[in-house]
Amino acid sequence: MAFPSSLTLCMFFFFAIFHFCNSLSTSQDYLKLPLLHKNSFSSPAQLLSSDSHRLSVLFSALHGGHRRSVKSPLISGASTGSGQYFVSLRIGSPPQSLLLVADTGSDLVWVKCSACRNCSDYRPGSAFLTRHSSTFSPHHCYDPACRLVPSLKPSFPCNHTVLHSPCRYEYSYADGSTTSGFFSKETATLTTSSGKEAKLRDLAFGCGFRVSGPSVTGASFNGAQGVMGLGRGSISFASQLGHRFGNKFSYCLLDYTISPPPTSYLTIGSGDQNGAVSKSSGMNYTPLLTNPLSPSFYYIGIKSVSVNGAKLPINPSVWSIDELGNGGTVIDSGTTLSFLAEPAYRHVLAAFRQKLKLPIVAMKPKLSFDLCVNVSGVRRPMLPKLSFRLEGKSVLSPPPRNYFLEVADRVMCLAMQPVKTGSGFSVIGNLMQQGFLLDFDKDRSRLGFSRRGCASP
Ligand SMILES: *[C@@H]1O[C@H](CO)[C@@H](O)[C@H](O)[C@H]1NC(C)=O
Ligand SMILES: *[C@@H]1O[C@H](CO)[C@@H](O)[C@H](O)[C@H]1NC(C)=O
Ligand SMILES: *[C@@H]1O[C@H](CO)[C@@H](O)[C@H](O)[C@H]1NC(C)=O
C-alpha cells in the first residue's frame, strides 16, 4: 500500500497530540454531540445555592492572592454539577463511553481512571478502565506534552533515562477542587456529521487518580466521570480537535425545564446550522478578549447594561480587566448563575426593584437571592427586560427566563449574584446562555450569538 499508516503520519508531527489522524474525512465534516442535562437536586433553589457557594469560594481564593502562587492560572470550571450540561465521550480501544461535564471555563479533558483511589463511586462504568484498552499510555514526564499541564507540587524531577516515569499532573479549579493523575494519551472515537466513525489518536487527557473538592466529587458532580475542558488553552478538547475541524465550536443550551426537555448540542467545527445562521445575518458578534493571566477563559467585553431600555449609570471601568488580571466578563458553560461586579450588580438590582410591579417576597436568607417576586395568580408575569451592550456594537438581550428562575412554587428570583470588584470577574453563566446559539470562533477571535440558531436539528 502506498499510503503511510495514520500512525506514522501522526508521529511525523512534533505535537502529535494535536493532530487528527484520519485522512478519510473531508474538511466539511463536523462533530455534533448531544448535551445532556441532569439535575439531581430536588429544587432549583438547592442547586443554585450550591452554585453560589462555589463561586464565593472562587472569589475569595482570588482575593487571597492564590492566583500568583500557582503555576497555572486559576481556572473556573466543572462546577457543582447542578445546572450542568454533560457530553458523552468514547475513548479507548475498544471504546468506553464516559459522561463528562462540558466546561468552557477550563482546558483539561480528564476522566476518573480505574486506579482512582478515592473517586468514591465504584459502580461499573463509573471510571475509565485503562487495562481494558490496548491504546492507553501515559505521557512520559520528559515528553514535551507534559509541559502543557501543571505538575504536582513539589514538582517531580523528571529523569528521562527512567523508562516508566509518567507525567504527573495536578489541575485545580477556581474553587480549590483538584484532580490529579497521569497526563496520558488515548484514542477517541468520534462520529462525524456525515456519519463516519473517526478515530482521534493521541487525545491528550488526564487519567485521574485523585479528586477532591466540591466541584468534582460526590453527589454534586452528578455521576459524571470527568470534565471535558473546552477552554482556550492548547490542551482543551476544542483546541485539540480544532486543527481538524476548524478552530471553532458552538452550542445551544435549551431550557431544560421544558417538558420533555429538548436536546442541546455541542458542535465542533462549522456545523451547517451555523453557516445557515450567519448567512441569514441572524448572528451578532462580539470580540473574544484575552487575559494573559487566565488564558483558558473566553472573555467578552460589556460596555453597558440596560433595564427596560434605560441605560444604567455604571462606570465602564467596572467591566475592564486590571493589570493583576482581575475583572472582565467570562462566558462559562460550567457555571449556572450569572455574576456581576458589585457596583454593576447593585445598579441592576435597584433598577429591577423599581421596575417590578409584582409583590416582592423575602426568601430564606440561606438561598442568597436578593430579589424574589410572588407570581401566584399571574399568568404572564411582566418582568423587566435586561440587555447587555457588548464590544463590537452588538446587544445581548436574553429573555427574562434566563435571569428569573422559578425557585419555589410561583416564586421567581433574580438568578444573579454580586462579585467584589477587584477580586473576581463577572460571569455569564449557562442559564443566561439558554436559547442562544453561541459560536466560539477562535481563529477570528469572536463570539457569535443568535436566538435564531437553536431550531431543532
Ligand atoms: C536517573 O536514573 C538513572 C538510572 O536509574 C540514575 O543512574 C541517575 O542517577 C538518575 N539521574 C538523576 C538526575 O536522578
Ligand atoms: C481524596 O484524597 C484527597 C487527598 O488525599 C482528599 O483531599 C480528598 O478529600 C479525597 N476525596 C474524596 C472524595 O474522598
Ligand atoms: C404569594 O401570593 C399568594 C396569594 O396572593 C399567597 O397565598 C402566597 O402565600 C404567596 N407566596 C409567598 C411565598 O409569599
UniProtKB/TrEMBL annotation:
Residues 85-450 form the Peptidase A1 domain. It holds the Pfam family TAXi_C. Residues 1-23 form the signal peptide. Keywords: Aspartyl protease, Glycoprotein, Hydrolase, Protease, Signal. One of its GO terms (biological process) is proteolysis. GO terms for molecular function: aspartic-type endopeptidase activity. The active site is at D103, D332. PANTHER family: ASPARTIC PROTEINASE NEPENTHESIN-1 (PTHR47967:SF46), OS07G0603500 PROTEIN-RELATED (PTHR47967). Belongs to the peptidase A1 family. This is Peptidase A1 domain-containing protein.
